[in-house]
Amino acid sequence: xxxxxxFKAISSSLELDEVLNKIIHFAFNITENADAGYIQLLxxxxxxxxxxxxxxxxxxxKHFKVNVGESIxxxxxxxxxxxxxxxxxxxxxxMTDLSKDNFSILEQAHNSRNIKSILSIPISxxxxxxxxxTLHCFEKEDGLSKSDLILLQSFAAQAAIAIHNAQLHxxxxxxxxxxxxxSEKLRxxxxxxxxxxxxxxxxxxLSIQNKGLNAIILEMNKMMEKSFVLxxxxxxxxxxxxxxxxxxxxxxxxxxxxxxxxxxxxxICDTFETACYIYPxxxxxxxxxxxxxxxxxxxxxxxxxxxxxxxxxxxxxLMKLRSQTEIxxxxxxxxxxxxxxxxxxxxxxIAAADLGIQIHYxxxxxxxxxxxxxxxxxxxxxxxxxxxxLKKKIPSENTLLFSYNNKITFFSSSMNTEHEKYLIEIIESxxxxxxxxxxxxxxxxxxxxxxxxxxxxxxxxxAEKALLYLKKQKKKGVLHYRDIGISRLFLHHHTEEIEVxxxxxxxxxxxxxxxxxxxxxxxxxxxRSMNITAKEIHIHTNTLYNRIKKMEEILExxxxxxxxxxxxxxxxxxxxxxxx
Length: 580
Description:
alpha+beta
């Protein structure tokens, strides 16, 4: 009667957990001598039999997981044959391959009661293996019998159908839920797409109407759930004004995102930690700045959409400002070049006044050039960045500071040399800091001089020569024209022309006697000191003397003759300065 009633009960539900609970309870009732039992189903990704429902055990049984083929239930599942064992010793003999962990779990689950008999039946639907029903008897020696096995076999066949139907129902329900979820996501995406179009049109209209950067940022912040600021890379500031802790870390943020195009979360550690979402703004290879949203929590889909749609518009606005700045600096450069050409005092004063400069007794000209592997647009962007950095430090009174292409021009007129020294120190420290932080090289040529009509152009040319000398030397940093020395006479000579002179002067030393050439160079650099030279190249002074005589023969020169030795000195200087 229990068996007949169980068929109806386990088929009355399609919820898998409920079906499994009914199956184990009716299996327990069908066999009156069973004291505990559990049902295991195969977990496909781990290929293990997992306890899904139980009776007569404590909750420890939930952790009992056996591999297919392991112990009694694993073999029953693998072979598809039922197993009835009526003695404790035989039961334990069949459990020798059970892992220590599983054995411990099983002992805990039945509170270390002595098992008398066990009955395990496979559950299969058609050719598909589903799981295993296992019953334990602890009280009676002959508790579980063959009649129990026969009844449980019939029950297991019906249970397999119920489980199969419940699994199908669960799969259909999961598929339905997935379709419902996808439908909701599709509606959400369609809504976002519609909003994206509205956002794009609104921000584009503001840009076309030339409402400006601030108006676009304000409108975006109105639409967003979280507010953001734009960190302008060139200006080194936030729009609108922002958290001072973040503002202090702008240089580090810029350095981190200069070469990145994907957004990321960063943690800023100052007096306290501040988490921010950083979205880099770029125009091709040019880094323009970042959008910064403060907070740990992820952005909503709407906020991300607004930022993604607004970033290109903000990039366009920043490039408009760059273009306006570049046009202004181009005009300033043209006016400066006209000022350099003026010779008459009255014309000089008028041209200087147009540039906002009042002529004083001392002039200072500094030309700064950025050089590196970056493309021209990136170099121009870096020049603007360095220019803004200099503007923050250099007093604007009676000074001219602008960039054109990848060069920065600085011109000032002052009443005393102390002010000149102060300005030079600012330029030197700024370029030194730049070269420490960036891979793009900054170098500067400087010239100072007293004022007289037309001297501004001469001063400018000297600064150009100092810059050219640094370029030829492939050095970075700052050089004053007066520190070039004799090299100023050879700045505009081509390297090929200098090499021809060296080949003619060094003769066969240049092509066939490299060891003698190195000896000669060391000898000249040590001011003809025999002892120092011999020690430096690790030879005896007599050997050095013989080498010098041999070199004089090859070169057909007498080093004791002033003109001959001067020629050799000059050749060594040019070799060390412009070639090596």
